[in-house]
Protein backbone atom coordinates (compact mmCIF):
# COMPACT_ATOMS: atom_id res chain seq x y z
CA UNK A 1 0.00 0.00 0.00
CA UNK A 2 2.91 2.37 0.69
CA UNK A 3 5.54 1.01 -1.67
CA UNK A 4 4.83 3.79 -4.19
CA UNK A 5 5.14 6.53 -1.57
CA UNK A 6 8.21 8.14 -0.07
CA UNK A 7 8.37 8.30 3.71
CA UNK A 8 9.18 11.76 5.08
CA UNK A 9 10.56 12.65 8.48
CA UNK A 10 8.20 15.61 8.74
CA UNK A 11 5.28 16.86 6.73
CA UNK A 12 4.32 20.49 7.24
CA UNK A 13 0.73 21.37 6.49
CA UNK A 14 0.45 25.04 5.62
CA UNK A 15 2.62 27.38 3.57
CA UNK A 16 2.41 30.64 5.51
CA UNK A 17 5.24 32.20 7.59
CA UNK A 18 5.28 29.39 10.17
CA UNK A 19 5.21 26.63 7.59
CA UNK A 20 7.87 28.27 5.44
CA UNK A 21 10.25 28.77 8.35
CA UNK A 22 9.60 25.22 9.56
CA UNK A 23 10.58 24.02 6.08
CA UNK A 24 13.89 25.90 6.37
CA UNK A 25 14.63 24.93 9.96
CA UNK A 26 13.86 21.24 9.39
CA UNK A 27 16.61 21.32 6.78
CA UNK A 28 18.97 22.56 9.49
CA UNK A 29 17.91 19.49 11.47
CA UNK A 30 18.71 17.26 8.47
CA UNK A 31 15.11 16.05 8.20
CA UNK A 32 13.49 14.85 4.99
CA UNK A 33 10.77 17.43 4.59
CA UNK A 34 7.54 17.88 2.69
CA UNK A 35 5.35 21.00 2.79
CA UNK A 36 1.72 20.84 1.66
CA UNK A 37 -0.29 24.00 0.95
CA UNK A 38 -4.02 24.03 0.17
CA UNK A 39 -3.74 27.00 -2.19
CA UNK A 40 -1.83 27.14 -5.44
CA UNK A 41 0.85 29.45 -4.04
CA UNK A 42 2.90 29.81 -0.89
CA UNK A 43 2.63 32.70 1.52
CA UNK A 44 -0.55 32.09 3.49
CA UNK A 45 -2.13 35.18 4.96
CA UNK A 46 0.67 37.44 3.71
CA UNK A 47 -0.69 37.03 0.17
CA UNK A 48 -3.76 39.07 1.11
CA UNK A 49 -1.80 42.26 1.82
CA UNK A 50 0.99 42.49 -0.78
CA UNK A 51 1.45 46.28 -0.42
CA UNK A 52 1.18 46.41 3.35
CA UNK A 53 4.32 47.53 5.18
CA UNK A 54 5.70 45.07 7.74
CA UNK A 55 7.68 46.70 10.54
CA UNK A 56 7.91 44.11 13.31
CA UNK A 57 10.15 41.33 12.00
CA UNK A 58 13.42 41.38 13.93
CA UNK A 59 16.43 42.58 11.97
CA UNK A 60 14.34 43.49 8.93
CA UNK A 61 13.75 47.16 8.17
CA UNK A 62 10.23 48.12 6.97
CA UNK A 63 9.41 45.91 4.02
CA UNK A 64 6.46 45.42 1.68
CA UNK A 65 4.58 42.25 2.52
CA UNK A 66 5.00 40.98 -1.03
CA UNK A 67 8.78 41.27 -0.77
CA UNK A 68 8.85 39.62 2.65
CA UNK A 69 6.79 36.73 1.26
CA UNK A 70 9.26 36.27 -1.59
CA UNK A 71 12.17 36.18 0.85
CA UNK A 72 10.44 33.69 3.16
CA UNK A 73 9.75 31.38 0.21
CA UNK A 74 13.35 31.62 -0.98
CA UNK A 75 14.61 30.80 2.51
CA UNK A 76 12.20 27.86 2.78
CA UNK A 77 13.75 26.31 -0.35
CA UNK A 78 17.31 26.35 1.07
CA UNK A 79 17.43 22.59 1.69
CA UNK A 80 15.24 21.52 -1.24
CA UNK A 81 12.08 20.35 0.52
CA UNK A 82 9.30 18.71 -1.45
CA UNK A 83 6.53 21.26 -2.06
CA UNK A 84 2.95 20.24 -2.83
CA UNK A 85 0.41 22.91 -3.79
CA UNK A 86 -3.35 22.81 -4.25
CA UNK A 87 -4.08 20.00 -1.78
CA UNK A 88 -6.12 20.39 1.40
CA UNK A 89 -5.30 17.58 3.80
CA UNK A 90 -8.39 15.88 5.13
CA UNK A 91 -7.71 12.43 6.61
CA UNK A 92 -5.14 11.04 9.03
CA UNK A 93 -4.45 7.32 9.45
CA UNK A 94 -1.95 6.19 12.07
CA UNK A 95 -0.28 2.96 11.01
CA UNK A 96 0.94 0.09 13.17
CA UNK A 97 4.58 1.17 12.88
CA UNK A 98 3.73 4.67 14.17
CA UNK A 99 3.98 6.40 10.81
CA UNK A 100 1.04 8.39 9.51
CA UNK A 101 -0.78 8.43 6.19
CA UNK A 102 -2.27 11.78 5.21
CA UNK A 103 -4.93 11.96 2.53
CA UNK A 104 -6.07 15.09 0.74
CA UNK A 105 -9.68 16.01 -0.01
CA UNK A 106 -9.04 14.93 -3.61
CA UNK A 107 -7.47 11.58 -2.70
CA UNK A 108 -3.69 12.16 -2.86
CA UNK A 109 -1.70 10.38 -0.12
CA UNK A 110 1.37 11.43 1.85
CA UNK A 111 3.39 9.19 4.17
CA UNK A 112 5.19 10.73 7.11
CA UNK A 113 6.73 10.10 10.51
CA UNK A 114 5.68 13.42 12.06
CA UNK A 115 3.33 16.30 11.19
CA UNK A 116 3.57 20.01 11.86
CA UNK A 117 0.26 21.83 11.55
CA UNK A 118 0.99 25.38 10.39
CA UNK A 119 -2.59 26.05 9.34
CA UNK A 120 -2.81 29.72 10.22
CA UNK A 121 -6.52 30.36 10.54
CA UNK A 122 -7.34 27.57 8.11
CA UNK A 123 -8.19 28.00 4.44
CA UNK A 124 -8.96 31.69 4.58
CA UNK A 125 -11.91 33.46 3.04
CA UNK A 126 -12.48 37.16 3.40
CA UNK A 127 -15.61 38.11 5.34
CA UNK A 128 -17.80 39.88 2.81
CA UNK A 129 -20.05 42.90 3.32
CA UNK A 130 -23.38 41.51 4.51
CA UNK A 131 -25.60 43.75 2.41
CA UNK A 132 -27.87 42.46 -0.34
CA UNK A 133 -26.49 43.19 -3.79
CA UNK A 134 -23.02 44.21 -2.57
CA UNK A 135 -21.32 41.56 -4.70
CA UNK A 136 -22.24 43.40 -7.90
CA UNK A 137 -19.76 46.15 -7.02
CA UNK A 138 -16.78 43.85 -6.47
CA UNK A 139 -15.69 44.36 -10.09
CA UNK A 140 -16.00 48.11 -9.55
CA UNK A 141 -15.03 50.06 -6.46
CA UNK A 142 -15.83 47.67 -3.60
CA UNK A 143 -12.53 46.22 -2.36
CA UNK A 144 -11.71 43.47 0.12
CA UNK A 145 -7.97 43.65 -0.44
CA UNK A 146 -5.66 46.45 -1.55
CA UNK A 147 -3.38 45.44 -4.38
CA UNK A 148 -2.23 48.88 -5.54
CA UNK A 149 -2.33 52.05 -3.46
CA UNK A 150 -2.35 54.25 -6.57
CA UNK A 151 -5.88 53.09 -7.36
CA UNK A 152 -7.06 55.29 -4.50
CA UNK A 153 -5.14 58.46 -5.29
CA UNK A 154 -7.37 61.55 -4.95
CA UNK A 155 -10.38 59.35 -4.16
CA UNK A 156 -12.91 59.69 -1.35
CA UNK A 157 -12.34 56.39 0.45
CA UNK A 158 -14.53 54.77 3.09
CA UNK A 159 -13.03 51.92 5.13
CA UNK A 160 -15.29 49.61 7.13
CA UNK A 161 -13.54 47.71 9.92
CA UNK A 162 -11.61 48.13 13.13
CA UNK A 163 -8.73 45.65 13.12
CA UNK A 164 -5.10 45.97 12.08
CA UNK A 165 -5.88 45.95 8.36
CA UNK A 166 -8.47 48.72 8.51
CA UNK A 167 -6.19 50.91 10.63
CA UNK A 168 -3.11 50.20 8.51
CA UNK A 169 -4.87 51.00 5.24
CA UNK A 170 -6.28 54.20 6.71
CA UNK A 171 -2.75 55.29 7.59
CA UNK A 172 -1.32 54.23 4.23
CA UNK A 173 -4.03 56.00 2.22
CA UNK A 174 -4.32 59.18 4.31
CA UNK A 175 -1.58 61.10 2.42
CA UNK A 176 -2.70 59.71 -0.93
CA UNK A 177 -6.50 59.85 -1.03
CA UNK A 178 -8.68 62.97 -1.20
CA UNK A 179 -10.25 61.84 2.08
CA UNK A 180 -10.38 58.73 4.25
CA UNK A 181 -13.31 57.85 6.50
CA UNK A 182 -13.21 54.83 8.83
CA UNK A 183 -16.41 53.37 10.29
CA UNK A 184 -16.24 50.76 13.02
CA UNK A 185 -19.10 49.19 14.94
CA UNK A 186 -17.25 49.36 18.26
CA UNK A 187 -15.82 52.30 20.16
CA UNK A 188 -12.38 50.71 20.48
CA UNK A 189 -10.14 49.59 17.65
CA UNK A 190 -8.36 46.24 17.62
CA UNK A 191 -5.23 47.39 15.79
CA UNK A 192 -1.82 47.99 17.34
CA UNK A 193 -1.98 50.95 19.73
CA UNK A 194 0.70 52.98 17.97
CA UNK A 195 -1.04 52.69 14.61
CA UNK A 196 -4.44 53.53 16.08
CA UNK A 197 -2.95 56.64 17.71
CA UNK A 198 -1.39 57.68 14.41
CA UNK A 199 -4.74 57.33 12.66
CA UNK A 200 -6.55 59.30 15.34
CA UNK A 201 -4.06 62.15 15.09
CA UNK A 202 -4.24 62.34 11.29
CA UNK A 203 -6.85 63.77 8.93
CA UNK A 204 -8.67 60.42 8.83
CA UNK A 205 -12.33 60.83 9.82
CA UNK A 206 -13.23 58.17 12.38
CA UNK A 207 -16.89 57.32 13.09
CA UNK A 208 -17.72 54.91 15.94
CA UNK A 209 -19.83 53.00 16.77
CA UNK A 210 -21.16 53.00 13.21
CA UNK A 211 -21.68 50.40 10.51
CA UNK A 212 -22.51 50.37 6.82
CA UNK A 213 -26.26 50.04 6.33
CA UNK A 214 -26.93 50.59 2.61
CA UNK A 215 -25.15 51.18 -0.66
CA UNK A 216 -26.25 53.49 -3.45
CA UNK A 217 -25.05 52.59 -6.91
CA UNK A 218 -24.25 54.69 -9.95
CA UNK A 219 -26.70 55.03 -12.82
CA UNK A 220 -25.04 52.17 -14.71
CA UNK A 221 -24.99 49.99 -11.57
CA UNK A 222 -21.26 49.34 -11.80
CA UNK A 223 -19.95 51.38 -8.89
CA UNK A 224 -20.88 52.64 -5.43
CA UNK A 225 -21.59 56.36 -5.27
CA UNK A 226 -22.92 56.60 -1.75
CA UNK A 227 -22.84 54.70 1.54
CA UNK A 228 -25.42 54.91 4.28
CA UNK A 229 -24.04 54.46 7.79
CA UNK A 230 -25.99 54.09 11.03
CA UNK A 231 -25.12 54.11 14.71
CA UNK A 232 -24.80 50.70 16.40
CA UNK A 233 -26.40 50.27 19.84
CA UNK A 234 -25.13 48.13 22.73
CA UNK A 235 -27.00 45.09 21.38
CA UNK A 236 -25.46 45.45 17.93
CA UNK A 237 -28.60 46.82 16.27
CA UNK A 238 -28.44 49.59 13.69
CA UNK A 239 -30.31 52.83 14.27
CA UNK A 240 -33.23 53.71 11.98
CA UNK A 241 -31.58 57.05 11.31
CA UNK A 242 -28.77 56.98 8.78
CA UNK A 243 -26.21 59.34 7.30
CA UNK A 244 -25.30 59.23 3.63
CA UNK A 245 -21.67 59.71 2.59
CA UNK A 246 -20.51 60.24 -0.98
CA UNK A 247 -17.64 57.92 -1.88
CA UNK A 248 -15.38 56.94 -4.76
CA UNK A 249 -14.18 53.68 -3.21
CA UNK A 250 -15.12 51.37 -0.34
CA UNK A 251 -12.66 49.05 1.41
CA UNK A 252 -14.11 46.34 3.67
CA UNK A 253 -11.82 44.82 6.31
CA UNK A 254 -14.16 42.63 8.35
CA UNK A 255 -11.59 39.95 8.97
CA UNK A 256 -11.11 36.45 7.70
CA UNK A 257 -13.07 33.28 8.14
CA UNK A 258 -11.01 30.15 8.32
CA UNK A 259 -11.87 26.55 7.50
CA UNK A 260 -9.74 23.72 8.92
CA UNK A 261 -11.73 21.11 7.03
CA UNK A 262 -11.82 17.58 8.40
CA UNK A 263 -8.73 18.16 10.56
CA UNK A 264 -11.16 19.22 13.31
CA UNK A 265 -12.24 15.56 13.47
CA UNK A 266 -8.76 14.10 14.07
CA UNK A 267 -9.13 14.19 17.85
CA UNK A 268 -6.97 17.25 18.42
CA UNK A 269 -7.67 19.37 21.47
CA UNK A 270 -8.97 22.55 19.88
CA UNK A 271 -10.41 25.95 20.68
CA UNK A 272 -12.75 27.90 18.37
CA UNK A 273 -9.90 29.11 16.13
CA UNK A 274 -6.82 27.22 17.23
CA UNK A 275 -5.15 24.00 18.34
CA UNK A 276 -4.00 23.58 21.93
CA UNK A 277 -0.30 22.85 22.33
CA UNK A 278 2.24 22.74 25.15
CA UNK A 279 5.37 24.88 25.51
CA UNK A 280 7.18 22.56 23.08
CA UNK A 281 4.39 22.96 20.50
CA UNK A 282 3.29 19.33 20.91
CA UNK A 283 -0.42 18.66 20.54
CA UNK A 284 -2.32 15.97 22.41
CA UNK A 285 -1.72 13.55 19.50
CA UNK A 286 1.69 11.81 19.40
CA UNK A 287 3.97 13.01 16.60
CA UNK A 288 1.74 15.95 15.69
CA UNK A 289 2.89 19.49 16.44
CA UNK A 290 1.51 22.96 15.79
CA UNK A 291 3.07 26.30 14.87
CA UNK A 292 2.00 29.83 14.01
CA UNK A 293 -1.45 31.36 14.42
CA UNK A 294 -3.12 27.96 14.79
CA UNK A 295 -1.08 27.09 17.90
CA UNK A 296 -2.41 28.18 21.28
CA UNK A 297 -0.30 27.98 24.43
CA UNK A 298 0.52 30.16 27.43
CA UNK A 299 2.38 33.30 26.40
CA UNK A 300 1.44 33.02 22.73
CA UNK A 301 2.62 35.97 20.59
CA UNK A 302 0.64 36.58 17.41
CA UNK A 303 3.39 38.12 15.29
CA UNK A 304 5.23 36.86 12.24
CA UNK A 305 8.32 36.85 14.46
CA UNK A 306 6.44 34.63 16.90
CA UNK A 307 5.52 32.26 14.07
CA UNK A 308 9.22 31.77 13.30
CA UNK A 309 9.94 30.81 16.90
CA UNK A 310 6.94 28.45 16.94
CA UNK A 311 8.23 26.79 13.79
CA UNK A 312 11.70 26.16 15.19
CA UNK A 313 10.29 24.79 18.46
CA UNK A 314 7.90 22.49 16.59
CA UNK A 315 10.69 21.18 14.35
CA UNK A 316 12.95 20.56 17.35
CA UNK A 317 10.15 18.64 19.06
CA UNK A 318 9.53 16.59 15.93
CA UNK A 319 13.26 15.78 15.69
CA UNK A 320 13.40 14.65 19.32
CA UNK A 321 10.23 12.61 18.83
CA UNK A 322 12.07 10.67 16.12
CA UNK A 323 15.52 10.72 17.74
CA UNK A 324 15.34 11.23 21.52
CA UNK A 325 19.15 11.44 21.75
CA UNK A 326 19.45 14.17 19.10
CA UNK A 327 20.60 17.67 20.15
CA UNK A 328 17.73 19.73 21.54
CA UNK A 329 18.16 22.35 18.82
CA UNK A 330 20.14 22.98 15.65
CA UNK A 331 23.49 24.70 15.95
CA UNK A 332 23.18 28.40 15.08
CA UNK A 333 23.91 29.11 11.43
CA UNK A 334 27.16 30.98 12.16
CA UNK A 335 28.64 27.74 13.57
CA UNK A 336 26.65 25.12 11.67
CA UNK A 337 28.70 22.97 9.29
CA UNK A 338 25.62 22.41 7.13
CA UNK A 339 26.08 25.96 5.80
CA UNK A 340 29.79 25.67 4.96
CA UNK A 341 29.39 24.83 1.27
CA UNK A 342 26.48 27.25 0.94
CA UNK A 343 28.60 30.06 2.38
CA UNK A 344 31.40 29.26 -0.06
CA UNK A 345 28.88 29.33 -2.92
CA UNK A 346 27.81 32.78 -1.76
CA UNK A 347 31.41 33.96 -1.92
CA UNK A 348 32.03 34.01 1.83
CA UNK A 349 35.67 33.37 2.70
CA UNK A 350 36.14 29.83 3.97
CA UNK A 351 37.69 31.04 7.24
CA UNK A 352 34.50 33.07 7.83
CA UNK A 353 32.13 30.26 6.81
From TrEMBL:
Catalytic activity, reaction form: 2 reduced [2Fe-2S]-[ferredoxin] + NADP(+) + H(+) = 2 oxidized [2Fe-2S]-[ferredoxin] + NADPH
HAMAP family: FENR2 (MF_01685)
Protein family (similarity comment): Belongs to the ferredoxin--NADP reductase type 2 family.
Record has Transcription regulation as a keyword: no
Entry binding sites for FAD: 37, 49, 89, 124, 293, 334
Entry EC no(s): 1.18.1.2
EC top class, as a word: oxidoreductase
Cofactor: FAD
Sequence ranges assigned to domain FAD/NAD(P)-binding in this UniProt record: 8-305
Pfam families, alphabetized: Pyr_redox_2
GO MF term set: ferredoxin-NADP+ reductase activity; flavin adenine dinucleotide binding; NADP binding
Protein name, as recorded: Ferredoxin--NADP reductase
UniProt KW NADP keyword: yes
Cofactor binding, per record: Binds 1 FAD per subunit.
Subunit text: Homodimer.
Alphabetical UniProt keywords: FAD, Flavoprotein, NADP, Oxidoreductase
Amino acid sequence: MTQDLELYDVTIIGGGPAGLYASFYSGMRDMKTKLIEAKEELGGRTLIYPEKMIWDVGGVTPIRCERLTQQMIKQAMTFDPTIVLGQQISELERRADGTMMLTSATGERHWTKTVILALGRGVLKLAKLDIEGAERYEVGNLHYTVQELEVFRNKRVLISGGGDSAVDWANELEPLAASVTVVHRRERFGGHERNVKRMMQSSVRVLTPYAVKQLRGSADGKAIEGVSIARVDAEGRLSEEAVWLEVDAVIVNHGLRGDFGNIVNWGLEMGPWDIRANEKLATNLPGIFAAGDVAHYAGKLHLIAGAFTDAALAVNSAKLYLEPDAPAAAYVSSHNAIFKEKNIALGVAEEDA
